[in-house]
Amino acid sequence: xxxxxVTLLTIIAEGLLRERLIDDVMRLGASGYTLSEVHGRxxxxxxxxxxxxxxxxxxxxxxxATADSILAHLETHYFADYSVIAYTTEVRVLRPDKxx
Length: 100
Hints:
This protein is α+β, with helices and mostly antiparallel strands. 24% of the residues lie in helices and 37% in strands. The chain has helices at 18-27, 64-77, and strands spanning 4-13, 34-38, 41-42, 45-46, 55-62, 84-93.
C-alpha cells in the first residue's frame, strides 16, 4: 500500500494550556500527538509567557473530520482568551490506519 493523505493538525499555544489541550485533542479523536516546546514572536510581539517558560506545539495526524472538530473546539473555548493558533496541512503517510 502506498502513501495516503491525512491531515496534520498543528496547535501552538501558551504553555499553561499544555495538559488541557492534550486532553482535548485526545478526547476529540486523535490517536496520538507530538509535543514540542517552542519560542517565537507573532503579531502581538513576544508573549509574556516566553519569559516564564516555553509555549507548546502540539501536532496530531488525524482525519479531516477530527481536525475540523478540534479546530471548532479551539475556536469556541480558547481563541478569545488565550494565545493560541491552529492550522492544518494535508500530508501523505504510510500506515494510514494509525491516524484515521
